[in-house]
Amino acid sequence: MMSDGVTQVTIDPTHGIEMEIKNFGANLVFEPQSFFSPRSEKEVLAILGRCRGHNIRTIGRLHSWSDAPRGDDVLLDLRHLNSVNIEERDGGVWATIQAGCQIKKVITELERRAKATLPSLGLITEQTIAGAISTGTHGSGKHSISHYIDEVTIATYDAATGEPVIRTINGGDELLGARCSLGCMGVILTVSLRCRTQYCVEEHVRLYRHCEDVLAAEEDYPLQHFFLVPFLWKFLTQHRREVVARRSLLAPVYALYWFFGIDLGLHLVLGVLTKVFRSRKLIRFFYRYVVPVTILRGWKVVDTSQKILTMEHELFRHIEIEVFVKRDQLVDMLRFVRQFVQYCDGQPDAFDETTWNQLAGHDASESLRAMLGDYTHHYPICVRKVLPDSTLVSMASGGEEPYYALSFISYNRLQDRDSFFRFANVLARTTAILFGARPHWGKICPIDSQLADQLYPRLPEFRRVCDAMDSGGVFRNPWLKDVIFNDR
Questions:
Q1: Which site from 66, 240, 271, 301 is most exposed, i.e. has the minimal number of CB atoms within 10 Å?
Q2: pTM score, whole prediction
Q3: What distance in Å separates the CA atoms of residue 340 and residue 474, rounded to the nearest whole number?
Q4: For residue range 140-154, what is the model confidence (pLDDT) as tens digits?
Q5: Which parts of 38-117 fold into alpha helices (H)?
Q6: Strand pairing of 56-59 and 74-77?
């Protein structure tokens, strides 16, 4: 037991004590040397004071599949820092949220106390607010949550004295860096942002043959997202738009349909097909002949934003890679994705000669050829529009053109994931070469420092901001040192 009320758990293998930290996907497992779960900002500073010279990382709810949260030395879990302070400021609702507060609590408190909500909502509400902004979590049709952050308080070390301090960041490149920092600037304590009045969203579902038709509908449905359904090769689109209307009487029935039909039903079926039968033929049959007859098309329903825009995607363990491309690359990217999935499923003529020639000069064609018949993708490919972020290194940072995030999810058993990891590695590299695609920092992220430099023009500025805030580099783990800082 430490003074200041801070409890330290130290791994002592001589007594058989182990603290195993495992992420949601169970693909990241590690054992920190020291683990802390502080209950106040004062305790965070005390921990930093006692741990000078050690590497320090912070975790949220571990809804990340990359190595970003890994902390083998000193690890902080901020789950007890979970308050939400709401106030009226400049005619609007302003929220100051402690780092360990989960998104689901944030939106519940905003609704209950101010009839308000966050300016952007992702599909999942299990993450902490700090984890969400640190990796650029996003929804569809808006910026990522990171973009809306106006102020961040961070615990770090003073560059002159070496003493732990709390810094408030509310402008300049420091704020652009802190909005999506991957934990490299210090321990985030609070984030503050202007919220918006609660609103309703209308939704209905349609099936399209061509991506161009889906994109054309964005003018009327700016919050829509859509799925490329494998082996059916059609686009299942959830048309969504903000409306001034009351909640539909049948909204609860619609919610039950999605919960039992998608959140539970689809995932149970896919679990059986991938984990029990492990049959490629059954997966193809399911998407070609079963999925089309289960879709409720044209039923327009209005409900509150969080009811429509979020789902219970965390009910079943999975792993995921997500890549971002700009709008002008999306149609070609989706054409490549279809060919890539078909090729991995065993179709040798899926790619034309042009694609092979484009990759030949980048030493990527051989790794792509090795994927023939190696993996059958079994989950609809989700596509969401993300407006450009005012950040330094979030996946949608930079430029005026919107980005589109394409998610590839696997429900394979833990022991059967190797083919998906190969699939993800080749997908990330080939799409980065062909389309400038950026893998999500918080999901499977198989890029190196050379690709990171190519994909993020403002990465040098991010490094400078991090160096100024963390001159000793103590808040970086080996993966971040290699990918972001080129192991400097």
A1: 271
A2: 0.93
A3: 40
A4: 999 999 999 999 999
A5: 41-50, 103-114
A6: parallel
